[in-house]
Amino acid sequence: MRMWASFAVAAGVAAGSVCQAQLSINFEPPPYSASAAGTLLTGQNGWYNPIAGSSDFSAYTYAGNAFGIVANPTGGTQMIAGVCPGGTAFARAQHPFDFSAGGEWVASWDVVGMFNGTLPAVENLGSFSLQPSTTNRYWQQLMNWGTHGADATLFDINYGVFDTTGLTIAFVSPGPAWMGLQVNHWYHQTTTWSFETNLVTEVTITDLSTGVTTTAHPAGWYLAGGPNLVLPIATDIRVFAGGSGASNGNISAWDNITVSRPPPRCGTADFNCDGDVGTDSDIAGFFACLSGSCPAAPCTNSADFNGDGDIGTDADIEAFFRVLSGGHC
Predict the structure, then answer these.
(1) 240-268 residue pLDDT tens
(2) If 327 and its partner were Cys, which of 166, 299, 309, 322 is the partner (CB 3.0–4.6 Å)?
(3) Strand residue runs (E) in the chain
(4) What is the value of pTM for the model shown?
(5) Nearest to 78 by CA among 51, 97, 60, 101
(6) How far, in Å, CA of 158 to CA of 169, rounded?
(7) Distances (CA, A) of 126 to 57, 165, 279
(8) What angle do CA 116, 119, 124 make, to 5 degrees?
């Protein structure tokens, strides 16, 4: 019997994994009610209007919807949308989420931006953000017209993030893939961040018609408060449609909103980085690491083998032996 087999028996490796809280909303019935003309979202399944005087979002069917929003290639039969009717009656919809455990999170959503008012279009088109932004740690994904307001045929996406002072927000682009986006066209986005470091660490955008995905790993993109972690953790997510003026027609539509823990990032079965994968010395190194004697980088140097934030648990041991056997953590 190989040494690793006896270790596996001794460890009493358990099947299963630690469950993580998550939010997954596709706006389908039930529990969501929608119509072609729009059905008030406020009051449905935890959604509420957070600011008095704001316009409400509504839930729409893709079939025959009032704005002519195209069907989402990955959607079902329903979505939500908000339109700013003019003035400062911006459209807002907010949903609570328990981030209190801290750590790393990823939010994803499908989005459309478009315009049905009198040109030129006025900023800002729409956004997705953590809330409350006046008191808590947050980041914001902002859709704006940029240089395209005259005809409103294209728009850009920027991120509202903070520098090391944590006080002043700056709106920055992740790259060219987030610029010159088509109106009435579905895009999928993800944003990964950590409340431990207060940093946005990864953003992606996928054109849902072509399937092309672009990934960016920004540097120094802090949430409000910066690296000092003095502000409380966010408690909600919010979608928004903005603008200003006597007449407006900025529309943001949303579908498939999720908030969850990122997928685990496994360690390597070559735990001691000697180039010989899955040997007895790798196993000995792993169990030594469980006891506090981890190898130095760039070797696998954490007893949190499955990357779930819980160090040296049965789940880490299970993941290690699963990878040794050629599987995935």
Answers:
(1) 999 876 668 999 999 999 999 887 666 67
(2) 322
(3) 23-25, 39-40, 55-56, 58-61, 78-83, 91-96, 104-115, 126-131, 140-144, 154-162, 169-172, 181-182, 187-194, 199-207, 213-216, 236-241, 250-260
(4) 0.79
(5) 60
(6) 12
(7) 12, 26, 53
(8) 75
Cα-flanking dihedrals φ and ψ of residue 78, to 5°? -140, 160
Token pair recorded at residue 278: 């899955």
pLDDT for position 16: 31
Quick check: 165 and 151 in contact, CB under 8 A? no
Instruction: Show the tokens assigned to 318.
Output: 């299970």
Cα diameter, the chain: 79
Q: Would you call 115 helix, strand, or coil by DSSP?
A: strand
Tally of CB atoms within 10 A around 23: 15
Residue 184, strand partner residues: none
Going along the chain from its start, the domains and CATH numbers come out as 3-18+264-324 (no CATH), 23-260 (2.60.120.200)
- Structure-token pair, residue 162: 């903070």
Peptide bond into 174 cis (omega under 30): no
124 and 244 Cβ atoms separated by less than 8 Å: no
Report pLDDT digits (tens) over 103-145. Answer: 999 999 999 999 999 899 999 999 999 999 999 999 999 999 9
Q: Map tokens 């957070």 to a residue.
A: 50
How far is residue 101's CA from residue 98's CA, in Å, rounded to a whole number?
A: 8
Token pair of 66, please?
């009032």
* Helix, strand, or coil (residue 285): helix
Q: Report residue 146: phi and psi, to 5°.
A: 55, -125
Residue, of 175 and 296, whose pLDDT is higher: 175
Within 13 Å and on the Cβ side, how many CA atoms surround 13? 15
Of the given ranges (6-20, 205-219, 289-303), which has the lowest mean pLDDT? 6-20
